[in-house]
Amino acid sequence: MTEDFYRIRRLPPYVIAEVNAMRAAARAAGEDIIDLGMGNPDLPPPAHVIAKLCEVAQKPDAHGYSQSKGIPGLRRAQANYYARRFGVDLDPETEVVVTMGSKEGLASLATAITAPGDVILAPNPSYPIHTFGFIIAGATIRAVPTTPDEAYFDSLERAMSFTVPRPSILVVNYPSNPTAETVDLAFYERLVAWARENKVWILSDLAYSELYYDGQPTPSILQVKGAKDVAIEFTSLSKTYSMAGWRMGFAVGNKRLIAAMTRVKSYLDYGAFTPIQAAACAALNGPQDIVERNRELYHKRRDVLVESFGRAGWDIPSPRASMFAWAPLPPALNHLGSLEFSKQLLSHAKVAVAPGVGYGENGEGYVRIAMVENEQRIRQAARNVKKYLASMGVNTPAKGAAG
Fold first, then answer.
1. Contact 183, 217 (CB under 8 A)
2. pLDDT reported for residue 400
3. Which position among 64, 72, 258, 279 has the lowest Cβ density within 10 Å, counted as fewest Cβ atoms?
4. pTM here?
């Protein structure tokens, strides 16, 4: 009997879990930890969505198995969302499948379309499922940058020229988790043309589509003519409607990929609890004022974070989208590395952040800061950070105090 398992051997220890364990231990000891680590929304879903959940859960026939691909009404609701938001027409029967969050959807698709030895192009740094979903399925990862510039397309060309076997799938994620980078429609147009020419599937993770702050709405790759020939896109209700724990997401786009994913899911699950799916319909079909409210709230938190941490002596680039800031370590402390810096910040400043190295080797030198605490708590975090930096001999700006 083997002492280790093949797929487990391919999964390194989850670096971020180390900081999470420290945070949990500190809180268990009664310490007040300001948690800016996990991207867990602190806001409730809309009241009418919760009411719909309760209403449907009261029905005696709502507690049996649901539908693996999602109930028809929910697939129609997602198709309608794409029509009004992006001007994209989707067939709810063949181009939409409901997932238990983007994470499960990406993992199911990786299982459906990946063979051992396949080469997948994935961003580095990236959200772990973008790489490890395919590693679990037996694939090999070739990293590409996250920065959407000429260097990005140069890396794609090199990958196609020098990788054996040739890559078959490209994962993209904009707005990016963890870097918060964004792209415009012209980027997707160029990417779709490249994918068609090179016969590569594109998997687009659009989980943060509604959290943008510069007045320019985030585009969908499916807005590009012909994109459905090569692309599938994942979205989620987690951040848009503050429904992270509900595990509601979608995959839409290429019929062949949707069919493959649907077939695999039919063996793995019976779909989410029907009352949750009904409530998700209420979120997509009902009043949409929460979307703008959440966007404005995260926008204000972003501004408070950048301003207060800057006055504390830690300059953080202002993210244009998502609920995260991708922050380079203070130069004087860069030698610590992102993991040790995160541990020290937790121990001495009582502030939890996510070490950048947990998102790939190119994330070293950064931490991801989630804007999931209110403005008062963010300012308190800045005051704590200022004291920690001072204790480490880091100079802070002379005028004013943090917060």
1. no
2. 47
3. 64
4. 0.93
